[in-house]
């Protein structure tokens, strides 16, 4: 079946037809064929994250990515703990919102959307505030596409002996992350981002020595990461409650296709080519990237509105959709921007066609004004 448009968004994203096709079968959740798939996914995720099986476990959780983040925050931070959050965009702020709703003591270091959280400031705050037990931040802040300094931040957190929680939703599987070597305690991502599955669950690569301490801590029944882990381990791949079977099967296929592509390095290379081509051609067409290339991720790019009073996002969006591309609105309060994702089953020819369409749109607008 022909797709009406290509999704140039940071998830859900365009998946291959082979990933969609494996969803045409129904699975029994407690049958061993299905549970074997779940177990295989869990161990493949550990391999992807370079997280040794002796130290780490991968726990899958129903729901979108936020459910996974909420499960970690709500399960990991004890009643007398304090969470420090680094926020330079909407997803960092969402972690703060989770802590607020769950009544978890927290403190947030806020940064502008084009500003990187600094390791030195984090070090100073951890020296001064002894109550902090856990630190959470976003790796690729999808609000802008900025790539936060993962290694440097985790190193400071671990130097202080604190628990490191990383929302790597839009980066995991799209760029190598050495979870074990870095010492990350919890890394969260979801099915429908760089691994290129369909939406329906999130997963957490968790340090077992931390998670084992979390029995009875969760502030929610369904988002109890510890219990979810126990059932998945003790019943060899069984989920606590009904699992998204078709989504799980599709995710397994997506993992195989990631390996076929040559693994995370090759996928990262494709996304990087996509993103660099996008910026080059969009800038030739007259659009300016909002962030400098030095802080950019290969996953999603923020562009400023062109300097033409007749330009509106809505009309531009409708034009591109007609041409077969769906792009993303901006998420910044202080700048007029839109976003284009370069992840999913999207290739350089697609990006070139998109940029041609965008260029022709601007040319027409300029002629009319
Ligand atoms: C996509 C995403 C999430 C999760 O969003 P959901 O809508 O719950 O899937 C969280 N953090 C980041 C950085 C993301 O890109």
UniProtKB/TrEMBL annotation:
Domain Aminotransferase class V: 33-327
Modified residues (N6-(pyridoxal phosphate)lysine): 193
Keyword Kinase: no
Annotated EC: 2.6.1.37
Top-level taxon in the UniProt lineage: Bacteria
Keywords: Aminotransferase, Pyridoxal phosphate, Pyruvate, Transferase
Reactions it catalyzes: (2-aminoethyl)phosphonate + pyruvate = phosphonoacetaldehyde + L-alanine
Top enzyme category: transferase
SUPFAM superfamilies reported in the protein's UniProt record: PLP-dependent transferases
Pfam families tied to this protein: Aminotran_5
Cofactor: pyridoxal 5'-phosphate
InterPro entries: Aminotrans_V_dom (IPR000192), NH2EtPonate_pyrv_transaminase (IPR012703), PyrdxlP-dep_Trfase (IPR015424), PyrdxlP-dep_Trfase_major (IPR015421), PyrdxlP-dep_Trfase_small (IPR015422), SP_NH2Trfase/AEP_transaminase (IPR024169)
Assembly, per entry: Homodimer.
Chain's role: Involved in phosphonate degradation.
Record family assignment: Belongs to the class-V pyridoxal-phosphate-dependent aminotransferase family. PhnW subfamily.
Name this protein carries in UniProt: 2-aminoethylphosphonate--pyruvate transaminase
Taxonomic lineage of the native organism: Bacteria, Bacillati, Bacillota, Bacilli, Bacillales
Gene responsible for this protein: phnW
């Amino acid at each position: 079946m022909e797709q009406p448009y290509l999704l140039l968004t940071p998830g859900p994203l365009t998946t291959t037809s082979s990933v969609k096709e494996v969803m045409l079968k129904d699975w029994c959740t407690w049958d061993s064929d299905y549970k074997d798939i779940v177990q295989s996914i869990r161990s493949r995720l550990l391999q992807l994250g370079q997280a040794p099986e002796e130290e780490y476990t991968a726990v899958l959780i129903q729901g979108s990515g936020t459910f996974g983040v909420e499960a970690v925050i709500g399960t990991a931070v004890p009643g007398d703990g304090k969470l420090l959050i680094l926020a330079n965009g909407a997803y960092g702020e969402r972690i703060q919102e989770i802590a607020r709703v769950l009544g978890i003591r927290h403190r947030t270091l806020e940064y502008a959307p084009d500003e990187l959280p600094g390791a030195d400031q984090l070090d100073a705050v951890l020296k001064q505030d002894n109550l902090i037990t856990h630190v959470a931040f976003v790796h690729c802040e999808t609000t802008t596409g900025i790539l936060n300094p993962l290694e440097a931040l985790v190193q400071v957190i671990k130097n202080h002996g604190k628990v490191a929680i990383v929302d790597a939703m839009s980066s995991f599987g799209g760029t190598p992350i050495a979870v074990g070597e870095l010492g990350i305690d919890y890394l969260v991502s979801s099915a429908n981002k760089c691994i290129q599955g369909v939406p329906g669950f999130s997963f957490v690569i968790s340090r077992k020595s931390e998670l084992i301490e979390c029995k009875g801590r969760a502030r929610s029944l369904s988002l109890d990461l510890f219990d979810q882990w126990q059932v998945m381990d003790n019943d060899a791949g069984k989920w606590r409650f009904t699992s998204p079977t078709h989504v799980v099967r599709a995710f397994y296929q997506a993992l195989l296709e990631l390996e076929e592509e040559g693994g995370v390095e090759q996928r990262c290379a494709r996304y990087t080519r996509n993103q660099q081509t996008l910026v080059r051609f969009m800038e030739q067409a007259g659009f300016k990237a909002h962030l400098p290339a030095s802080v950019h991720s290969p996953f999603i790019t923020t562009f400023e509105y062109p300097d033409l009073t007749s330009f509106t996002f809505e009309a531009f969006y409708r034009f591109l959709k007609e041409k077969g591309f769906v792009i993303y609105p901006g998420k910044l309060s202080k700048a007029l921007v839109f976003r284009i994702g370069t992840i999913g089953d999207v290739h350089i020819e697609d990006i070139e066609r998109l940029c041609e369409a965008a260029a022709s749109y601007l040319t027409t607008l300029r002629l009319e004004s």
